[in-house]
From TrEMBL, chain A:
<dbReference type="InterPro" id="IPR027417">
    <property type="entry name" value="P-loop_NTPase"/>
</dbReference>
<keyword id="KW-0813">Transport</keyword>
<dbReference type="InterPro" id="IPR050107">
    <property type="entry name" value="ABC_carbohydrate_import_ATPase"/>
</dbReference>
<keyword id="KW-0762">Sugar transport</keyword>
<keyword id="KW-0067">ATP-binding</keyword>
<dbReference type="GO" id="GO:0005524">
    <property type="term" value="F:ATP binding"/>
</dbReference>
<dbReference type="InterPro" id="IPR003439">
    <property type="entry name" value="ABC_transporter-like_ATP-bd"/>
</dbReference>
<dbReference type="InterPro" id="IPR017871">
    <property type="entry name" value="ABC_transporter-like_CS"/>
</dbReference>
<feature type="domain" description="ABC transporter">
    <location>
        <begin position="3"/>
        <end position="241"/>
    </location>
</feature>
Automatic annotation (TrEMBL), chain B:
<feature type="transmembrane region" description="Helical">
    <location>
        <begin position="171"/>
        <end position="193"/>
    </location>
</feature>
<feature type="transmembrane region" description="Helical">
    <location>
        <begin position="304"/>
        <end position="322"/>
    </location>
</feature>
<feature type="transmembrane region" description="Helical">
    <location>
        <begin position="56"/>
        <end position="76"/>
    </location>
</feature>
<dbReference type="GO" id="GO:0022857">
    <property type="term" value="F:transmembrane transporter activity"/>
</dbReference>
<feature type="transmembrane region" description="Helical">
    <location>
        <begin position="133"/>
        <end position="151"/>
    </location>
</feature>
<keyword id="KW-1003">Cell membrane</keyword>
<feature type="transmembrane region" description="Helical">
    <location>
        <begin position="27"/>
        <end position="44"/>
    </location>
</feature>
<feature type="transmembrane region" description="Helical">
    <location>
        <begin position="279"/>
        <end position="298"/>
    </location>
</feature>
<keyword id="KW-0812">Transmembrane</keyword>
Amino acid sequence: MSCRLEQIVMDFPGTRALDGVSAEFRFDEVHGLIGENGAGKSTFVNVLGGSLRPTSGQLNLEDRPVTLDSPRAALAHGIAHVSQEGSLVPGLTGAENILLGAEPRRAGGVLRSRELNRRAAELVENWFPSLALPLDRPVGELPMAEQKVIEIVRALRGNIRLLILDEPTATLEAREKRRLWSIIRGLPQRGVGVVLISHFLSEVRDLSDRITVLRDGKHVATLQAKDATEAQLVDLMLRREGALGPAIVAETRSRSVGAPVLRVRDWTVGGVTVPEFTLQAGQIVGLIGLTGAGHFGFARSLYTRQGVSSGRIEVAGRSVEARGVRAMQQSGVALVPDHRMENALSGEGSVLENLSMVHADTAARSGILSRRAEHAEAGRIIRLLNIKTPGDGQLIRNLSGGNKQKVSIGKWLYGAGDRYRVLIFIEPTEGVDIGAKQEIYAHIRRLAAGGAGIVIASSDLIEIAQVCDIALPFAHGRLGTPIPASEFSEARFIAAISGEAA
Amino acid sequence: MTINTGISAPGHAETLRKGKGDWLQRYSTLGVLVLMFLGFALFVDRFLTPLNVSNIFQQIAILTIVGCGLTFGFAAKEIDLSVGYTVGLSGILVPLLLTLDWPLAAAIGAGLIAGLVVGIVNGLLVTKVGIPSLIATLATGSILFGVNFVLTGGRAIYGGLPQSYLDLGQGSILGVPTLAIFMLASALVAWFVMERTVFGRYIYAVGGNRKAAELSGLPITFYRMSALAIVSLFAVVAGALLAARLGSGQPNVGERYLLDGLATVFIGMTMFRPGTATVAGTFCGALFIGVINNGLNLVGLDTYVQNIVKGVIILAAVAIVSRTTKLSLL
């Protein structure tokens, strides 16, 4: 009674998302699936749920090979997928959502509403007799937890043997979570196996019978949940080949560190409070943590000021009272964000247009651009960062990931002189090949050597170890003890971000 | 069963391959325009005469001016559906004030101010109230439509218009029609602002990726509002010239400039920089429509059939743009 995936390979243009992953999901267990962002969890369950056809590999259902070429085909084989985003129609009632697409009708397509309500109530009663769900109200008005349950009931309305739950508790409050947990725990006894994706490790450990860990598109381990510790799971999720060697860590950090360029007090953003944070000129500070720990949000908020409920911020000794991106940018703070095609670049724009997005006026007199000055300045940045492009007229979307990222950095150098005293990088080498990675690191060091303060929030611990002078771990919404470069080690990082006392 | 999706090598090879595809894409519409022109020239007797070519330019002059304005809107990813009624507004207001014995400069100044007001109202609705421009300008267009009829009582304004005003739309300087001069001047100004100034660069940045522009510290509200204000300003200039050309102010002549204006921009977006509105593209788009209208006219095709042909061509243009780039206006 199980579903086995064997040697699943999934190629997307330019990347291999899954590299020969095998796993077995039984119909009498909750099976946790964990891994950092980009590890391939979502791709894997999309293959299982019929949303993606794998490049190669096989899927066996009770030892018979099957082909799932659509979610509908997966449902017909008893596999249902409840995605993270939710797929309810907010304006329809719970009952209508539960029977969406399978409504009882009269001849001519007229809905039999009373019958629909009766059947929906019957389904809920059958699966979760102890729950009192208001099935007659539009689901958009219901709390998130009840919406999730309605989605699960809808998934279970067929003859389902395996239910995929992708981050089911991500949007829930603590009390709501507990309700959902008992529902999930009860499913295997009814003959429905659960594949649970969650980035809350304690939740996965408590709910699951077995846990499978993915990393960089590969299967790392499958282990009994009761035997696993959180630190061990984090270690499996993060440890990479060619781990931090002494050579990397011992790299000389001879920059002189100067006066504070950024100072933050009592900074509360989302669920994270940082009592004090100081960045000095010439310093490179790494922010580390597991997904959801709040280090990305903290880094971003230093520039966008979004979601900041309290706190004071000083740039180069001067308090910045005005809120918003422009105030921060004009006081000398720059952000090189993650997801560059959404947040940093215009794909249909040229290299020149993107480079000049912040300081086009540098090559202009009275607002009129000088072609010559523009090409000269763009050429300087292209050479400085070694951006590989046939010319500054090339469209961004035609560049490789590493070169796109260099343009995203170059925006803050084009015509800027040394205006930016604080540069914040979020996942600076996301989707960047190894060669370009090293060039980007070299440039970040050069910026620091030039007197800028640098903040890097990254999920790549090797990156942090290679580039940073100090690492600040975030765990459980709190800032842990800073780790100086001399103490960088994988074990130390992992202990710190899984919240164990260092 | 296995499916092999070859992993394409990134870098230079890809760049070159795409470069070639881009080239074809960039100039295919232009090629069609040239072929169409040659076709009419060969098979329609009166097409390639100095008089007729000058005619084509006069016919597309007002359309081009409206299109140049709309190009600013599209470059910032804002659409203005009220543009036809804005043309109508100044096409009524300016002659109306002239019949009330306002001096020419004052009447035209009032028209410009009216355009600015319309543009700023559109801009505020879009940026401050947060209504998507497609919907906001649909509503303001309806309001303007009503205003235009209230101003005129539904009747045309004519008689008593000074010759100096009529000359703007009907005269010529050294044998060149004034309308053609206004068209070229508008296109040049629009081109210069879009391609050669910091302002134009940032309009493109805001339209290219609003989030990225915002995170770069650009005042995006200012650029979105400016783009919409410029659309209206070009529209009122076009309206004032239109009434001068017709010799009268009529409440409903502006309407056709909405669809034709959008068409010029859409056709223009298939060329030069596919998916992006450019002034050069818009100009060619206007020529495209001008050549079709004029040629089909000379062939003796009915105006209604011309509309059908035009609609089909607009669909083809938009289909090309949407298939090859991510055209999103909402």
